[in-house]
């Protein structure tokens, strides 16, 4: 039995995940724009609902792909004389996976967690119980105190990423190049921030710091 067509279809499904990821990135940017421009809280909450809908689609797609992959692997291993109804078998596995879903799963979605983290930081910067004048003053102080210089390039960062392990921030291209170079030498990367004891920086530990990027961009405009 040839499974080429099925493998091709699964590959197409996996490509759909990139569209979901892109949608979540856009929703995050829109929500941060809304907070920055002091829009109605309800608008921001609606963006959170959009993110949860995307997370639901992502979970459903992952379950569907996993169900079909398990079904195909099972059939390949057993090599039955008569090809079973693959769609029914996969659907059965899919429904079993879906029955184990819970709302807490959605809130563990990596992009949703990033969304909530960035939203919280943005609200801290622009909202609170203070007046707008006080907020502007606080932001100005934050900007003056915050170091926008990458510890690797010694230049102002354009695309800052934060290390989830130690909390230090670097220019994205610079840290990724360092990781790749050391990987070729089969060596680990020590955090380039002076005084940091973290000795194994991984690409998977890096997340974009949208708030810092906006502060840097804002300072450049002034």
Describe the structure.
It is a single chain. Strands 2-1-3 form a three-stranded antiparallel β-sheet. It has 222 residues and is mostly helical. It has helices at residues 4-36, 41-78, 86-99, 103-107, 110-126, 132-145, 172-184, 210-221, and strands spanning 160-163, 169-171, 206-208. It has two domains: 3-128; 160-221, Herpes Virus-1, CATH 3.30.40. The model is unreliable at 129-135 and 137-145 (pLDDT under 50). One of its GO terms (biological process) is double-strand break repair via homologous recombination.
Approximately what portion of the residues adopt beta-strand conformation? under 5%
Structural class: mainly alpha
* Number of strand elements: 3
Regions with pLDDT < 50 over 5+ consecutive residues?
Answer: 129-135, 137-145
In short:
The chain is about 65% helix and about 5% strand. The chain has about 220 residues and is mainly alpha-helical.
What is this structure's SSE topology?
Blueprint: H1 4-36, H2 41-78, H3 86-99, H4 103-107, H5 110-126, H6 132-145, E1 160-163, E2 169-171, H7 172-184, E3 206-208, H8 210-221
Antiparallel strand pairs: 1-2, 1-3
Short key terms for the protein model shown above:
222 residues; mainly alpha; Herpes Virus-1; 2 domains; three-stranded antiparallel β-sheet; 8 helices; zinc-finger
């Amino acid at each position: 039995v040839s499974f080429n067509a099925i493998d091709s279809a699964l590959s197409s499904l996996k490509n759909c995940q990139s569209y979901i990821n892109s949608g979540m990135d856009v929703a995050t940017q829109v929500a941060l724009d809304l907070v920055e421009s002091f829009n109605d809280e309800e608008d921001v909450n609606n963006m959170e609902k959009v993110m949860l809908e995307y997370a639901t689609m992502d979970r459903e797609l992952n379950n569907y792909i996993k169900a079909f992959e398990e079904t195909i692997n099972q059939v390949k291993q057993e090599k039955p004389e008569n090809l079973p109804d693959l769609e029914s078998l996969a659907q059965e596995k899919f429904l079993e996976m879906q029955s184990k879903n819970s709302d807490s799963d959605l809130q563990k979605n990596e992009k949703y967690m990033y969304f909530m983290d960035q939203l919280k930081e943005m609200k801290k910067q622009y909202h609170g119980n203070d007046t707008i004048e006080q907020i502007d003053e606080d932001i100005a102080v934050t900007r003056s105190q915050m170091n926008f210089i990458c510890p690797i390039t010694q230049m102002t960062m354009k695309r800052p990423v934060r290390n989830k392990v130690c909390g230090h921030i670097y220019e994205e291209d610079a840290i990724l190049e360092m990781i790749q170079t050391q990987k070729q030498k089969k060596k680990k990367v020590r955090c380039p921030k002076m005084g940091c004891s973290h000795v194994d920086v991984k690409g998977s530990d890096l997340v974009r710091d949208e708030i810092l990027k906006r502060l840097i961009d804002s300072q450049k405009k002034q």
